[in-house]
């Protein structure tokens, strides 16, 4: 089921009192962040969020949400593709081992990748990924830094990504939280 991008962003930017029929990605707009870019192209949607004083053209931190409607891949397959892309575009890139789990009945993978020197920005880039294999769509939420984050930032954003989830109004075992019904 394809939902308009505006409706998907509603789930990102506020805490709604209802969920849309079907699968829903639960990913909050982080405190102090704004939506800097969003686009729907074909069956893919992307939303990029940056700190309030930054832009998507000049950012030091970014949260990216991608929804691939109808994409049928596993989190491991997606991760493998990302590792190849990063290693092809960044010399000496590193991909940490994935943590694999099942959350709310959906397979997920969580991992970190780093590029010691991004050739476009001239800065390091460190990104944590959470990929969720839904029934209807494939979901990816990323937290990126253009600097080495502090231990406190690592903890903060790991906890943020842990809260990112998918629910489904049609499946009792994967029900959306009570405040979203």
Written overview of the protein:
The longest helix is centred in the middle third of the chain and has 15 residues, at 75-89. With 181 residues, the chain is α+β, with helices and mostly antiparallel strands. The chain is built from three helices and ten strands; from the N terminus they run αββββαβββββαβ. Residues 1-18 have low confidence and may be disordered. It has one domain (5-180): Mog1/PsbP, alpha/beta/alpha sandwich (Protein Transport Mog1p, Chain A). The strands form two sheets. Strands 2, 3, 4, 5, 6, 7, 8 and 9 form an eight-stranded antiparallel β-sheet that branches. The chain has helices at residues 5-13, 75-89, 151-163, and strands at 23-26, 33-41, 44-51, 61-69, 94-95, 99-103, 106-115, 125-133, 137-145, 165-168. It is globular, with a radius of gyration of 16 Å. It starts with a helix and ends in a 13-residue tail after the last strand.
